[in-house]
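Q: I have 194 residues here and want to know how they pack in 3D. Can you give me a structure?
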Amino acid sequence: MPAHIEIEFKTMLTEDEFHRLLKQLPFPERPVVQTNHYFETDDFQLKENGCALRIRKKRGQFILTLKEPHDEGLLETNEPLSKETADRWLEGNPTTTDFVSKRLKRLGIKEDALRHVGSLVTERYTFEENGIHYMLDKSLYHGVVDYELEVEAPSTEAGMNALKRVLAENGIEERKAPPKIARFFQQKAKLKNE
């Protein structure tokens, strides 16, 4: 099954800190642009289970990803989709898949209850060093632009140490960084209440 445990640490950044890290660390000159298309049921069954579901479009490829809570981080189940299948999902006609559907069924969630609730676009700069991936993200959603540093590592200790080292070396304060989907829904709710 195409699932793995994702161990990541992140912090929100100011725009100035983002540009400083972009210069200080060996990030590439150009980002990879990716779009996360988020899904949820009308009664927020995914959120109730601590889960998130998205289709990520990146470099012309579409990957369906279900994230579930796990003791060591997040259990991430990934499944490639054809453009036609991704389009069906985005048009409100989700289809059964080989792996994600099985995980959804275990949660008691049916594909036909899922709705496309919106998209978030990220410009991502990435480099890898000693098995640790560093990602600098500029995300745009619902009229908001935010910045974050994400560190993905093979272990909790390695990830935590890598993040703290980068922040200390660059005089940046660690700030809580809710998942992108949580920020997306928070801003969506805020706009709805205005």
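Q: Anything worth noting?
A: The first strand starts at residue 3 and ends at 6. The chain has six helices and nine strands.
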